[in-house]
Amino acid sequence: MRKILIIVTGLLLPSLVWGAGGGYTFPNDEIEIDWNDKAAMQNGARTFVNYCLSCHSAAYSRFNRVGEDLGISDELVRENLIFTTDVNGHKTKIGELMKTTMTPEYAEMAFGTVPPDLSLVARSRGVNWLYNYLRGFYVDESRIGLGINNGVFSNVGMPHVLADLQGLQIPKYRIQDDGQGNEQEIIVGFEIVKAGTMNKSDYDKTVHDLVAFLDYLAEPYKQTRKNVGTGVIIFLFVFLILAYALKREYWKDVH
Ligand code: HEC
């Protein structure tokens, strides 16, 4: 009994200490992605083409395929998701890849680095990292030109492109011992200093949906794969019963 008590206390203790940090969980906020929630992914797709595609590509996906997977008609895809044009100034065709029109040379000049393709970023970084990253931009006057920094990507070269929606925020720090007797400040949360057009929960939802879309982009077949997997298991199970019944039928006269 005592052992159990010790184990339980041991498990609970870190969460108590964590709670003492003021209830903030940044940069460890987590999200659940519901793969059947097409509405969320459509919403994310809209945010993506409006706020991200100007700099980042998702060059493994085609507009019409995204429309098909997320249940958006070709017409609506043309109206709501395609804002880019080709070199001749014609609207990008629906069967085209989702590429940014910004040239790498220009990006290099403007940001000092080329914004990476975001097709697989949900896999390389993980959805929780993305969720914290896109909510983690904060005012940092020491960064000449950009004026912002990021709580999970220190000295990031990307501007806070969603500042209109989120507003501007400053970090809240907690002093922590780094294990060698030195004190260091770590960011545990933020405080809005200039309001955006959205309140916190709407902004969190917008980012959640955007990340859901990026997660879909990184693995468009995930849902199909899961369904096929379930089907295969059911088939094998039914087959097992049949095989067993057959075996009994064959062997019944042998003994
Ligand atoms: C104005 C151009 C611009 C826009 C618009 C933009 N980004 Fe970025 N983004 C960048 C640049 C530049 C970097 C590289 C930052 C660095 O390496 O310091 C970057 C980096 C990133 C990264 C980090 C990738 C990695 O793994 O290192 C992610 C994720 C990202 N952007 C997501 C987004 C999303 C989502 C949007 C839309 C809401 C968006 N970006 C809009 C310029 C942009």
CATH class of the largest domain: Mainly Alpha
Structural class: alpha+beta
Question: Taking all residues together, what is the mean pLDDT?
Answer: 91
Enumerate the distinct ligands: heme C
- Give the number of domains: 2
Helix fraction bin: 40-55%
Widest β-sheet, arrangement of strands = 1-2
What percentage of the residues does DSSP assign to strands (E)?
Answer: 5-15%
Uncertain runs with pLDDT below 50, 5 residues or more?
Answer: 17-22
Radius of gyration: 25 Å
CATH superfamily annotation of the largest domain: Cytochrome c-like domain
The outline comes out as flat
Summarize the structure.
The chain is of the alpha+beta class and 255 residues long. It has helices at residues 2-19, 38-51, 63-70, 74-80, 104-111, 121-124, 127-134, 163-166, 200-218, 222-251; strands spanning 58-62, 97-98, 137-139, 148-150, 167-177, 183-195.
Blueprint of the fold:
Elements: H1 2-19, H2 38-51, E1 58-62, H3 63-70, H4 74-80, E2 97-98, H5 104-111, H6 121-124, H7 127-134, E3 137-139, E4 148-150, H8 163-166, E5 167-177, E6 183-195, H9 200-218, H10 222-251
Antiparallel strand pairs: 1-2, 3-4, 5-6
Bound molecules: heme C.
What does this structure look like?
- With 255 residues, the chain is an alpha+beta fold.
- It folds into 2 domains: 24-219, Cytochrome Bc1 Complex, Chain D, domain 2; 221-250.
- It is built from 10 helices and 6 strands, in the order H-H-E-H-H-E-H-H-H-E-E-H-E-E-H-H.
- The strands form 3 sheets. Strands 1-2 form a two-stranded antiparallel sheet. It has a two-stranded antiparallel ribbon with strand order 3-4. The protein has a two-stranded antiparallel sheet with strand order 5-6.
- A hairpin with an 8-residue loop joins strand 3 (137-139) and strand 4 (148-150).
- It is flat.
- Bound molecules: heme C.
- The site of heme C has 23 residues, from helix 6 and helix 7.
- Heme C is lined by residues 51-52, 54-56, 111, 113, 115-116, 118, 121, 124-125, 130, 133-134, 156-159, 161-162, 210.
